[in-house]
Write a structure and sequence with these properties.
Blueprint lengths: L7 E4 L9 E8 L8 E4 L5 E4 L5 E4 L8
């Protein structure tokens, strides 16, 4: 998995009816775009995470939405 600052990380729901969770990557802490990533949720909460196999990187920048 490779990402850049501004990409979105989509974590798919693992049970029926659970929605996907989308966060913005605000900092890449691993070498060459690899995890871990500092991410920011829509509510402003930030955390450091290493995504699991149920996650994908959306390379559209957050400002490209709309």
């Amino acid at each position: 998995m490779h990402a850049s600052k501004g990409d979105r990380l989509v974590m798919h729901g693992r049970v029926v009816g659970q929605q996907d969770h989308v966060v913005e990557i605000v900092e890449v802490l691993g070498p060459d775009g690899t995890p871990p990533y500092r991410v920011r949720a829509e509510n402003g909460h930030e955390t450091i995470m290493s995504p699991g196999p149920d996650s994908v990187v959306d390379h559209r920048k957050s400002s490209d939405q709309g």
